[in-house]
Amino acid sequence: MSVQRRISALKLIQRIKQHEIDGYAARMTAIRSEQAALQDELAALQARAEKEGHVASPESAPYLASFLRAVEARRAFLNGKLDALQTRAEEIEAQLLGVYREAKTNDAALDTSLAQQRQHENRQELAETEEIARNVYLRRRAE
Q1: Side-chain-facing half-sphere of 16: CA atoms under 13 Å
Q2: Is the Cβ–Cβ distance between 53 and 64 less than 8 Å?
Q3: Does domain 3-142 match CATH 1.10.287?
Q4: Would you tell me how many other CB atoms lie within 10 Å of the CB of residue 33?
Q5: Where are the chain's structural domains?
Q6: Which end of the chain, N or C, is less surrounded by CB atoms within 10 Å?
Q7: What pLDDT does residue 55 have?
């Protein structure tokens, strides 16, 4: 494969990997946002339980136990969702790390190819300059 084709291929791979990284980052942002919303809901639930979790009047006493059970059930449900989101976030982070490593490997290969191309161009330029200098020398010598 020619150096120019290799550089083109590596640049394409680099764009693809960046797109993958952006996709994983967007998913992580959505998960973190959902986790924050669940944390806010848990905090609001805790505040409501503290505010309404005691007997304020004799009429409310029979309903207190079912209210506290409902609060605990909702808290368990929200914690379960948080755990599931955390598991998904860890999976995405592992995938993101893998893609990031591949992107960095590709960057290194691209840098190497670009350096090789620069060396080749420098050698060609030097050869052309030497050819011109040789031709000038030969003309002057012939004169």
Answers
A1: 8
A2: yes
A3: yes
A4: 10
A5: 3-142
A6: C
A7: 66
